[in-house]
Specification:
2 copies of one chain form a homodimer. Chain A is of the alpha/beta class and about 210 residues long. Chain A has a single domain, classed as Rossmann fold, CATH 3.40.50. Chain A is built from 7 helices and 11 strands. In chain A, the strands form 3 sheets. In chain A, strands 5-2-1-6-7-11-10 form a 7-stranded mixed β-sheet, with helices on both faces. The first copy, chain A, has a two-stranded antiparallel ribbon with strand order 3-4. Chain A has a two-stranded parallel ribbon with strand order 8-9. The radius of gyration of chain A is 16 Å and the shape is globular. At the A-B interface, helix 1, strand 2, strand 4, helix 5 and helix 6 of A face helix 1, strand 2, strand 4, helix 5 and helix 6 of B.
Chain lengths: ~210, ~210
């Protein structure tokens, strides 16, 4: 089972490492990190480089594709090479997935038209620009397309997908393996729960970027 | 504020990317990925390479050190070069932290003697071999030393530390930024909560490796 994890300069690392850490534990998982060109890919802040072992020309028929987000997706929404690859692999995937603003790329590729989808909360409304139905849930399933909300939600998406592929017990074993028993010290992880002034602060910071 | 994220062949990627994704958002964060030698570092399954921009000889006085885990820590517990570096940086850090079996390295370096500490649940009892007090909590604070439980717990540790450094409001803003409003599809993320047969399955799988 080939799992293509798409990388691009400016990604948010946890967007891809969250689902990767779950999906790599699936039986027969064959994970491939892939970018437009193979090589080092720097994250949003440039502090961390992940390595794309493959260029997109080498990975043409993955069973699963995971498209992560980051501020850089804003420009990639207009990058035909990226969108063409996403469309081409989606034609043969069993599962097409995204985390955070990765859904903006699925949307820009035309894969979410008329479908419910989620994204990072700050970019969620813009999904409608591409004919998708913005849906404020953490993980949104529409047939073979699964979109997840911001950054950390890819772990939940990964477990949801792991259960579909390998069963609930296997997914629970993965959850125990990564000791995913979250206990955040605050309850401010969504726009509904965070203090208003913090939502405003971040919304201003993100405006026009996501 | 220099934050050293330690890498080694065989790490579990989420162990380090979780806290990194939180701590990189701190004001004036200067994150350095560091390994015994600079270069590509492969994770446990070899599917993903992270890049260590620095060798340990270059990073000698970080303000914060984060030591992640993975099966490979078992061998590193006897690697004097690694333990010497951990001891040397700890002498000057403001915070010394670990995720998962990273605490086994802090323990082997002699930093946890007589201190409460946590680790991945499967290796937790072994902390006692180094004179630490195994403590089954998700995040354990002992002065400037903070240890976190398995894999995903580094996100919670990162937020706890972010609040200490930059205040509760800032940590909440980070939590909202990474949309950390966890909704795992199952409640099997700890040995207390997972079905007995799943705990047994994994305990057998991990025996002697962590």
């Amino acid at each position: 089972m080939q799992i293509a994890c798409f990388l691009f300069d400016g990604i948010t690392a946890l967007d891809i490492v969250g689902p990767y850490e779950v999906l790599q534990r699936l039986p027969e998982a064959d994970v491939r990190f892939v970018a437009k060109q193979a090589g080092e890919i720097r994250t949003d802040n440039k502090f961390l480089a992940l390595v794309a072992d493959h260029g997109i020309d080498e990975i043409t028929e993955p069973d699963i594709v995971v498209v992560p987000g980051g501020f850089a997706t804003r420009a990639l929404e207009h990058d035909e090479e990226t969108l063409d690859w996403i469309r081409a692999v989606d034609a043969n995937t069993t599962w097409t997935t995204s985390v955070c603003t990765g859904s903006m790329l699925l949307a820009a590729a035309g894969l979410l038209e008329g479908k419910e989808a989620t994204s990072h909360w700050a970019s969620l409304p813009r999904l409608a620009d591409y004919g998708a139905i913005p849906t404020a849930r953490r993980v949104v399933e529409q047939g073979k397309v699964i979109t997840a909300a911001g950054v950390s939600s890819g772990i939940d998406m990964g477990l949801t997908l792991a259960a579909k592929i390998a069963g609930d017990e296997f997914a629970q074993a993965v959850q125990l393996g990564i000791e995913y028993d979250p206990q955040p010290p605050f309850d401010a992880g969504s726009v509904e729960k965070a203090p208003d002034q913090i939502v405003e602060l971040l919304a201003n910071m993100y405006a026009g970027r996501v």
